Automatic annotation (TrEMBL):
ATP binds at G141, K142, G143, G144, V145, G146, K147, S148. InterPro entries: FSCA_dom_sf, MIP18-like, Mrp/NBP35_ATP-bd, NUBPL-like, P-loop_NTPase, YlxH/NBP35. Binds and transfers iron-sulfur (Fe-S) clusters to target apoproteins. Can hydrolyze ATP. Residues 101-112 have a biased composition (Low complexity). This is Iron-sulfur cluster carrier protein. GO terms for biological process: iron-sulfur cluster assembly. One of its GO terms (molecular function) is metal ion binding. Belongs to the Mrp/NBP35 ATP-binding proteins family. The lineage of its organism: Bacteria, Pseudomonadati, Pseudomonadota, Alphaproteobacteria, Hyphomicrobiales. Residues 6-75 form the MIP18 family-like domain. Homodimer. Residues 91-100 have a biased composition (Pro residues). Pfam families: FeS_assembly_P (PF01883), ParA (PF10609).
């Protein structure tokens, strides 16, 4: 079925003249692999950087036409810049994000980033998302360290501290937020291209997992990841938020780097377990955010220690304290340590994270303390007080 749809999309594209008048985009090899999931088609067009502006309306036109194909409900066509032959190679350039107030634009390569009036607290040259005061990333250098569990409990803790909070699950390869917040329904369209976020425990939430079946293989390619993220960030009716927490995909590859470049981040929180290996990965995460000028607000040590339920004795099974020592060495704030606790796992699995399931527990207090420290770091940073050591790990 989806092969037939891909062929139908290709046939449709072959019948369209590209805006530069040089023939159709398929014969010229400008179309990426086409990925179809849940009736949504994703692909990108690779165009010379100088032509990006001209091809943008063409992308929108393709999106409109593709839905006429049986079984395709919507499409997302991203524009990527093709490097001109012989062009000098430069260090990675951030792909400019969409301008605020212009929903529906795909990623536009080669254009100058624009702040736009009313853009709240832009981080660097990146335009903010209207209505959202600050955006922070929760990231980890490798998978399975408890990044999503930390992100969701932190978001709920920020809310418990009185902030209006949203969470965006950018972990497109393995979205966990629907499970962690027990959200099963699909978000409704807000009319036009916008989506209304779901809500749980006072958090507004958006996840790629809402749009794509958990069973669907996530063979996302770079540009598609980016357009999906941009759409979730800018085409969702977040309303007014004090804070949006972005649960990043694990790792420090190109996709993560581009995300860190694309999203106007006020800062990043790095989650690590105490093991050496995880710390090495955490250091890479740190270096990645530094590379794109995003302040690292601090490191959280997860699964830091274990309290035996029968005796109450504490066991530092993973060599607790590694992250704290590392944070000191790197002159990055240490935000706190979360114990390895069955109840943290159980409440997460039940879709009712510990901060809301057992708000009076000491574990919930641990998360709230970390949230308070993160806010303090953000304020310190906004006041220009954060240390910014130059760290280069290659
Ligand atoms: N402090 C903790 N105590 C006990 N279990 C935990 C703790 N933190 C996370 N877990 C459990 O560890 C597993 C991995 O956590 P989580 O999905 O949050 O990790 P992740 O780093 O986001 O993983 P991935 O990157 O693979 O999505 C989950 O089963 C979660 O419930």
């Amino acid at each position: 079925m989806s092969d037939a749809q891909k062929s139908a999309i290709q046939a449709l594209l072959r019948g369209l003249d590209a805006p530069d008048g040089q023939g159709d985009v398929v014969s010229r090899g400008m179309v990426s692999d086409i990925f179809i999931a849940d009736g949504k088609a994703f692909f990108s067009l690779s165009v010379p950087a100088a032509e990006a502006e001209r091809f943008e309306p063409f992308c929108r036109e393709i999106e409109r036409r593709v839905v006429s194909i049986d079984g395709i409900a919507s499409a997302l066509v991203a524009l990527t810049a093709e490097k001109a032959a012989g062009a000098p190679s430069r260090s990675p350039q951030p792909v400019p994000p969409q301008q605020p107030g212009r929903p529906g634009q795909a990623i536009r390569a080669g254009a100058a980033p624009a702040g736009g009036p009313g853009a709240p607290r832009p981080a660097g040259s990146k335009p903010g998302v209207p209505g959202i005061d600050r955006i922070i990333a929760v990231a980890s250098g490798k998978g399975g360290v408890g990044k999503s569990t930390t992100a969701v409990n932190l978001a709920l803790s920020f809310a418990a501290l009185g902030l209006k909070v949203g969470i965006l699950d950018a972990d497109i390869y393995g979205p966990s937020i629907p499970r962690l917040l027990n959200l099963k329904e699909k978000p409704r369209s807000g009319g036009g291209r916008t989506l209304i976020p779901l809500e749980a425990y006072g958090l507004k939430a958006m996840s790629m997992g809402f749009l794509v079946d958990e069973e669907t293989p996530m063979i996302w390619r770079g540009p598609m990841v980016m357009s999906a993220l941009t759409q979730m960030l800018r085409e969702v009716e977040w309303g007014t938020l004090d804070l949006l927490v972005v649960d990043m995909p694990p790792g420090t590859g190109d996709a993560q780097l581009t995300m860190a470049q694309q999203v106007p981040l006020a800062g990043a929180v790095i989650v690590s377990t105490p093991q050496d290996l995880a710390l090495i990965d955490a250091r890479k995460g740190l270096a990645m955010f530094r590379k794109v000028d995003v302040p690292v607000l601090g490191i959280v040590e997860n699964m830091s220690y274990f309290i035996a339920p029968d005796t109450g004795a504490r066991y530092d099974i993973f060599g607790h304290g590694g992250a704290k020592a590392e944070a000191q060495r790197l002159e990055v704030p240490f935000l706190g340590e979360v114990p390895l606790e069955m109840v943290i796992r159980e409440t997460s699995d039940a879709g009712r994270p510990i901060v809301v399931a057992e708000p009076d527990s000491r574990h919930a207090a641990v998360y709230r303390d970390i949230a308070a420290r993160t806010l303090a770091e953000m304020d310190r940073d906004a006041a220009g007080g954060a240390k910014a050591p130059m760290i280069v790990f290659e």
